[in-house]
């Protein structure tokens, strides 16, 4: 995937969720920015993440993010790489140690624009997060990165309590439960 393929996927991205529909135009505008995939774009930049689920769709892998102190999906900065699918898979491997990761679909699973608070010398900015659906084996051992305080498979029925109402995670959970995604 490159910048033009990302543009194509965004142009054809369809969602029933109103908040995502509002993001699409902003994401398409950002694709045109030469610094879109770089942290140096201080107003905001692309990130990529994985909604990792087990094969039977009963659990998701979440990390307690050290800097944000929130349970989140695994992911991170593009750091100049315009192949967000590659970024997503690399971040998932680095943050979990999993080798059984399998892309369910090459299309975008979810998009979200969220504000990252200032910390140290890094100013408040937006992450334009492009998310892909990934499957992994739950019996494989996990290796936590230094970006996490905890890393755990969370059962779907516990996700809402763990993420404290994080709308974007609850949206991905709802998408996972829709049968059309897997048909």
UniProtKB/TrEMBL annotation:
Lineage: Bacteria, Pseudomonadati, Bacteroidota, Cytophagia, Cytophagales
InterPro entries xrefs: NUDIX_hydrolase-like_dom_sf (IPR015797)
Signal peptide: none
GO molecular function, one term: hydrolase activity
Coiled coil: none
Enzyme class per UniProt: hydrolase
EC numbers on record: 3.3.1.1
Keywords tagged on the record: Hydrolase
Protein name: Adenosylhomocysteinase
């Amino acid at each position: 995937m490159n910048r033009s393929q990302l543009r194509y996927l965004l142009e054809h991205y369809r969602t029933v969720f109103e908040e995502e529909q509002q993001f699409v135009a902003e994401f398409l505008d950002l694709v045109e920015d030469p610094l879109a995939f770089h942290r140096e774009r201080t107003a905001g930049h692309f990130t990529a993440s994985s909604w990792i689920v087990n094969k039977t769709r009963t659990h998701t892998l979440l990390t307690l993010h050290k800097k944000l102190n929130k349970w989140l999906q695994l992911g991170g900065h593009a750091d100049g790489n315009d192949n967000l699918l590659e970024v997503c898979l690399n971040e998932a491997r680095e943050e979990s140690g999993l080798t059984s990761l399998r892309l369910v679909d090459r299309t975008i699973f979810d998009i979200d624009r969220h504000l990252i608070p200032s910390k140290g010398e890094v100013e408040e900015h937006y992450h334009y997060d492009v998310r892909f659906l990934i499957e992994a084996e739950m019996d494989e051992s996990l290796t936590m990165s230094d970006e996490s305080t905890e890393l755990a498979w969370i059962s779907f029925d516990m996700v809402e309590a763990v993420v404290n109402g994080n709308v974007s995670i609850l949206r991905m959970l709802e998408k996972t439960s829709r049968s059309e995604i897997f048909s």
